[in-house]
């Protein structure tokens, strides 16, 4: 069991450092583009946008519009999505007591993929059609897996939930593959969505923001309870904690966060595994520090991943999901090896 005193004392310092890293990453994301804008001009323009301040950044109206209408919403969407996925991953890992658990474990990705594919194939093009369908599909996939796990197992045991998630994921993925055959010409659009994109603009940002706020607050409020849950169900129960209730609430909040992220960005993998694990290695295992640092670290990580996606093959653009896979796949193997050694 992780000692809580150290992380508790260091918590403000870690949060301040993470906020600083996130701020630097976001400014770097705002700098990238065809127009040459200096970091100082970006900082001045951000200050000018703040309430009750008026600063001359020296940017022309066209450059200000480029910064505000294209770059800023993209950076903000990347930050929100990255924060949600990383914090949801930390929540799932706390519930299942496994560093290899990720936000897609209970079928959120498969449900979102099926619903988004159906929307692309069967519905006329609409601005909110695919995001809404993906959100509903992600929630539906998790609900199906959770219901199946509770029906098949006793008291919603974690092992039964994992098996239910695997079964639901396989089933929904099979249906998605079947639906794709109805419109082969739409495969490019489907795969583009699956590989992730955070360039949806302000509409996507305002769409995800309310769900991000609710799910983040719920997860952050359960940090201490996840610390208690980490000692095991029997010990947690002896301390007066209802383990099944905590698991349900954390999974509910983490699944809501995952569904919201997937709805506006597609299926971006490995954020929910890489970031929480790095946070634990740096700041300790208390979920009172892991959850907020995962949120900030995930935001910074995905902003940087998007920056790489925009620049590595410029003027073309690499799907952001490909960048996270390049980072996450080797990291996943490393975590797997470390987990195996710890078990020996």
Identify the CATH homologous superfamily: ABC transporter involved in vitamin B12 uptake, BtuC
CATH topology: ABC transporter involved in vitamin B12 uptake, BtuC
Average predicted confidence as pLDDT: 85
Rg, alpha carbons: 21 Å
CATH class: Mainly Alpha
Number of helices: 14
Structural class: mainly alpha
Helix fraction bin = over 70%
CATH architecture: Orthogonal Bundle
Oligomer: single chain
**Sequence stretches where pLDDT stays below 50 over 5 or more residues:** 1-8
Query: What amount of the residues lies in strands?
Result: under 5%
Domains (count): 1
Q: What characteristic shape results from the CA principal axes?
A: globular
N-to-C order of helices and strands: HHHHHHHHHHHHHH
Number of strands: 0
Summarize the biggest pleated sheet. none
Describe the structure in your own words.
By secondary structure, this protein is mainly alpha-helical. The protein has a single domain (5-343), classed as ABC transporter involved in vitamin B12 uptake, BtuC, CATH 1.10.3470.10. The protein is built from 14 helices and no strands. It has helices at residues 5-31, 39-49, 61-96, 108-122, 129-152, 158-180, 187-194, 202-221, 223-229, 233-238, 243-265, 271-283, 287-311, 320-343. Helix 1 (5-31) packs antiparallel against helix 3 and helix 3 (61-96) crosses helix 13.
């Amino acid at each position: 069991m992780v000692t809580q005193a150290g992380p508790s004392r260091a918590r403000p310092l870690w949060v301040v450092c993470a906020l600083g890293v996130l701020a630097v990453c976001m400014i770097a994301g705002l700098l990238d583009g065809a127009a040459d804008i200096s970091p100082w001009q970006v900082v001045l323009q951000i200050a000018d946008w703040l309430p009750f301040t008026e600063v001359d950044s020296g940017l022309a109206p066209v450059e200000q519009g480029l910064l505000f209408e294209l770059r800023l919403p993209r950076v903000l969407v990347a930050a929100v999505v990255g924060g949600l996925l990383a914090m949801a991953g930390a929540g799932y890992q706390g519930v299942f007591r496994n560093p290899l658990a990720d936000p897609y474990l209970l079928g959120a990705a498969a449900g979102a993929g099926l619903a988004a594919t159906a929307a692309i194939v069967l519905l006329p093009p609409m601005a909110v059609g695919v995001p809404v369908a993906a959100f509903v599909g992600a929630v539906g996939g998790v609900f199906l897996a959770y219901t199946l796990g509770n029906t098949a197992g006793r008291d919603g045991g974690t092992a039964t939930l994992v098996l239910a998630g695997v079964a639901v994921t396989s089933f929904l993925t099979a249906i998605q593959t079947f639906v794709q055959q109805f419109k082969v010409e739409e495969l490019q659009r489907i795969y583009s969505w699956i590989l992730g994109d955070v360039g949806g603009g302000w509409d996507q940002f305002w769409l995800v923001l309310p769900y991000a706020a609710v799910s983040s607050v719920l997860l952050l409020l359960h940090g201490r309870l996840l610390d208690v849950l980490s000692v095991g169900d029997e010990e947690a129960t002896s301390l007066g904690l209802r383990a099944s209730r905590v698991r349900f609430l954390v999974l509910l909040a983490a699944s809501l966060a995952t569904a919201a992220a997937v709805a506006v960005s597609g299926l971006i993998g490995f954020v929910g595994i890489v970031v929480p694990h790095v946070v634990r290695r740096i700041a300790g295992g208390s979920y009172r520090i892991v959850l907020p640092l995962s949120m900030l670290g995930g935001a910074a990580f995905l902003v940087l991943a998007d920056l790489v996606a925009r620049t590595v093959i410029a003027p073309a653009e690499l799907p952001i999901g490909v960048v996270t896979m390049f980072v996450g796949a080797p990291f996943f193997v490393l975590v797997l090896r470390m987990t195996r050694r710890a078990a020996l």
